[in-house]
């Protein structure tokens, strides 16, 4: 019975990760190729994807490793690049509040794409929510690691110009955004995200707009949430 239920939850989670799989296999392969092009073997590439698993930070890490950048500078660069995950974590407090198992891993595996899938997911009541969230997160990481291994092996065998390959991550964000836009009836949240990002980009510039934009989005959503809560209580 438990095995059957687990398969049901895995079967439920898998189709929801297919868009991420399509992107992560390509993105992971691109990362593996870039690592190989910088002189790092498949073992290093896969190990970093298993332990770090941070997408855009791993792409940045290729240049940081190749240039032997000061560790303290690398730390602050990594902190700034992934500061948006602070806001992801805050927005997932309610979603993960009742999670009893796998919580440390779910926190670790909360990438941009996994967040976009999990935050909109409400599994049926008969399913174990913890396992659904685990399978979504775990499958996504498997896609990334698998793509990394494939790219690392190809990169060690083939030689070609890797210029522009890091744009694949941006392309995946766009694909996920378009997919969610088509699935959702209301677009207020998406428009809020686009508007806040554009305004902060114009004010703070391309190098510093991410954190202010995330702060504005979170503040507006919090105000809207409090307003709906007061109406329900009235």
Shape: globular
Q: Could you tell me how far the N terminus lies from the C terminus, measured between alpha carbons in angstroms?
A: 45 Å
- Strand residues, percent: under 5%
Characterize the biggest β-sheet.
Answer: none
E-strand count: 0
Order of helices and strands: HHHHHHHHHHHH
Helix/strand/pairing category = mainly alpha
Instruction: Note the total helix count.
Output: 12
Low-confidence stretches: none
Fraction in helix: over 70%
Radius of gyration, rounded? 19 Å
| Mean pLDDT figure | 81
Structure described in brief:
With 234 residues, the protein is mostly helical. The chain is 76% helix and 0% strand.
Describe the protein in words.
With 234 residues, this protein is mainly alpha-helical. It has helices spanning 2-37, 42-51, 56-66, 71-81, 84-91, 93-96, 103-108, 112-118, 129-157, 168-183, 188-204, 210-233. α1 (2-37) packs across α2 (42-51), α1 (2-37) runs antiparallel to α10 and α8 packs antiparallel against α9 (129-157). 25% of the residues are buried.
Any chance you could write out the topology, listing elements then pairs?
Layout: H1 2-37, H2 42-51, H3 56-66, H4 71-81, H5 84-91, H6 93-96, H7 103-108, H8 112-118, H9 129-157, H10 168-183, H11 188-204, H12 210-233
Helix pairs in contact: 1-2, 1-9, 1-10, 2-9, 8-9, 11-12
Please describe the structure with a list of short key phrases separated by commas or semicolons.
234 residues; mainly alpha; 12 helices
């Amino acid at each position: 019975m438990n095995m059957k239920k687990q398969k049901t939850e895995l079967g439920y989670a898998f189709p929801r990760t297919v868009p991420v799989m399509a992107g992560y296999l390509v993105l992971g392969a691109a990362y593996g190729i870039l690592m190989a092009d910088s002189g790092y073997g498949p073992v290093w590439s896969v190990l970093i994807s298993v332990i770090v698993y941070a997408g855009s930070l791993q792409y940045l890490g290729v240049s940081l490793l190749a240039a032997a950048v000061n560790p303290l500078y690398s730390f602050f660069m990594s902190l700034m690049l992934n500061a948006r995950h602070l806001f992801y974590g805050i927005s997932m407090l309610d979603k993960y509040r009742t999670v009893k198992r796998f919580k440390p891993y779910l926190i670790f595996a909360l990438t941009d794409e996994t967040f976009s899938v999990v935050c909109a997911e409400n599994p049926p009541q008969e399913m174990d929510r913890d396992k659904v969230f685990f399978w979504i997160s775990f499958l996504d990481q498997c896609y990334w690691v698998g793509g990394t291994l494939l790219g690392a092996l190809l990169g060690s065998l083939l030689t070609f110009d890797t210029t522009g390959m890091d744009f694949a991550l941006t392309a995946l964000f766009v694909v996920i955004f378009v997919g969610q836009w088509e699935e959702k009836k209301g677009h207020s949240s998406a428009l809020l995200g686009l508007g806040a990002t554009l305004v902060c980009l114009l004010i703070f510039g391309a190098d510093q707009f991410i954190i202010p934009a995330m702060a504005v989005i979170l503040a507006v959503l919090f105000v809207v949430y409090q307003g709906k809560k007061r109406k329900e209580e009235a």
